[in-house]
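Re: the multi-chain job from yesterday

Posting the exact lines I submitted so nobody has to dig through the queue logs.
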Amino acid sequence: MRKDDHTTMTQLELAVNGTITSEMETVARTERLEPEFVRGEVALGRLVIPANQNHLQRGLVPAGIGSKTTTKINANLGNSPLSSSLDCEFRKVLFAIELGADTVMDLSTGPRIDEIRCKILDTVKVPVGTVPLYQTVEELNDVLELTPAKFLEVVERQAKQGVDYMTVHCGLLRDMIPLTAPRVTGIVSRGGSLVAKWMQVHQKENPFYTAFDELCEIFRQYDVTWSLGDGLRPGCIADATDDAQLAELKVLGTLVRRAKAHGCQVMVEGPGHVPMDQIPYNVQVEKRWCDEAPFYVLGPLTTDIAPGYDHITSAIGAAIAAQHGAAMLCYVTPSEHLGLPNMDDVRQGVIAYKIAAHAADIARKLPGAADRDLELSKARFDFDWEKQFALSLDPGTARRMRQEALDAAEAAGQRRGTGCGGSVADGDDHFCTMCGPKFCSMRNFRDAIGR
Amino acid sequence: MRKDDHTTMTQLELAVNGTITSEMETVARTERLEPEFVRGEVALGRLVIPANQNHLQRGLVPAGIGSKTTTKINANLGNSPLSSSLDCEFRKVLFAIELGADTVMDLSTGPRIDEIRCKILDTVKVPVGTVPLYQTVEELNDVLELTPAKFLEVVERQAKQGVDYMTVHCGLLRDMIPLTAPRVTGIVSRGGSLVAKWMQVHQKENPFYTAFDELCEIFRQYDVTWSLGDGLRPGCIADATDDAQLAELKVLGTLVRRAKAHGCQVMVEGPGHVPMDQIPYNVQVEKRWCDEAPFYVLGPLTTDIAPGYDHITSAIGAAIAAQHGAAMLCYVTPSEHLGLPNMDDVRQGVIAYKIAAHAADIARKLPGAADRDLELSKARFDFDWEKQFALSLDPGTARRMRQEALDAAEAAGQRRGTGCGGSVADGDDHFCTMCGPKFCSMRNFRDAIGR
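And the result, structure tokens for all chains:
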């Protein structure tokens, strides 16, 4: 049965009614699961298929995000008021998807936001997320001018454009703000800090919390998936898993239930900066309090001392989070805390997160998760370099690095026939520039075992 | 009491006799431990202080490697028969140490091995390790010409030169070779494959195993620390934790006891390529079978599909291994499987492993482990960029990346006074190019909280 026949119902409502949509079938095929199993997981709210009907009509390929599917990764992109052009950000979006990003979030806060978003939604086939508060604030002089009506207008505009999931910081309530006072880095979520400022100055409750039911109605109408923002995520490991973070998470759990009662699909966002040993607890408590709604984490970074390398500090945390049940990992690039990512930062971030997600899927023993590893390892043993490259997460980089090693060996005065340079590239000799023939373990092993 | 008074005894023998050496005192100071505690750990064989007496005399600063001390990282360097010059490798050694490598291994297999090693030992203050089989084979036409006498001669020569620890593949016995037949990538340890070939062709037992007591006598004389090599470590995740690997590890446990009976300090090497979920078991079984001798692991890589990024695939595994009790992490660089590392690969490898070791030390709750994170986070909240850089693992890279972001913003047409470019670098404005003033979470938080 095709979703198109049910345009007034969400994937969640259809799943609860026992309907297997064509989107569920697509997810089942991609994930090697039974369609009925996928329907059941969607019905229970443990799996979401962010697929705005207006993006579906333009060619979105549905993807499933949940704890029973492969771990997904998201790449954040978008301009800032201070830098990066529309074209440049658009090229980064395409590049991130080419490298394997499963979803992208357009976090533009600069000029021409509608234009860049429509161009993205017209072009890309993966789910697209936004933080609608950014555009709202960009269109105002100051966040303090924000009204629920203005915010609802922006959300509906983005929903009509086809945005598949939206982050809204509904769970940060006014009485939580004092909990952040003892923190080392306060509130580091942009949305969280904006709404905190709004609440403090106006002496009013979180407007996204008070307008939650109206927001749900818009989300339901287009089947926009909730991504309940964690405005109080820790911004350094000293602030991890503190009272502020947990108080917000508890409220997010109540909002998960309210969103589902409206028929909306929902995921929950998580930290941030968390020491390795606290990561399993962070995943477990989200599952318990939020009825196993898919957990969408940012990293987390496992140490604060490596600016310039936060794709690595956080890939460690992301892999552990996914191993313990996080459903989607929001990438962090080397430029985190320093500036907007350039093309190479996007590459480093996406590949680091593909690694984290894949390593976790292997550890979770998902069926077939290690097949590609096996094929690449066989190619490695067979000295089949081209096949190794083809099976790599980033074939271009692997091929380039090997060529540079060959060139360096050649430049060091090695000649063809002594096993270096061109002769290796020919694939005739079963060793590489790392070890040379006498020290090649795979060659010596073959000699030993007669294989 | 100074070690110099006991030049005929090893750290282990002195510890067992109740002596606290000046090296133990240095380790206690560095690690914020009590000297008596350090002595006790050395006596139990749970902590080693690789400090060849001939390197000590030339200024070696002793370091402790064990499960109660901070996690150490090692950088492998050295030329190959096919590439890299002596000067170039020497510069990499100095660079790795400057970036924070706690020990270096000279794995040269090319020409002028003695020359490069003596230059390293004369210069560097960190423990230096080798795999003496490499030089032995380099000096022969073929590994098949190897004799125990020749090997002992090379080991003694290196011990006299001042090498602090040596990897020898003593535990790979002849009857284990058939266990490797079903493997996807066979034997990937260079030393392991060489000794396997030697055993198969000569139909004799492992010469390092049969000469183990004689080797111990040389090691004891100079207080060279054993690093019992894992010749059967898995070369892909499909081969992880298999019968071959475990059979060798069991023998290494017996050799740990024999080495200690000779008065030798000893660590045990470990894998390699291991799925995340198997890493804790790998550490636990080593501790059980090897009487908690310090475990020195190579990564492990948690997936095989990312050549060009194996510093990341393995930093994930290394962090988990250290969290569960591995004492030292041998770095893996981006060029692993592709070629010898260049300077930037060395940088990436060392920093990735400093991150893994530090993240694990935080998770292990070592006293003061997170102090630097706290200071950097405070500097971040205070927009004190220079202090952030100074506290970073790689200040130069962090500074450069921020400057590039500022330059990009400037080039995008931003002017001074609108909060971009130079004015940010001046430190006057409390926001950065990522978000700009309106979206700066730390600025908005300060507004909200009145801080």
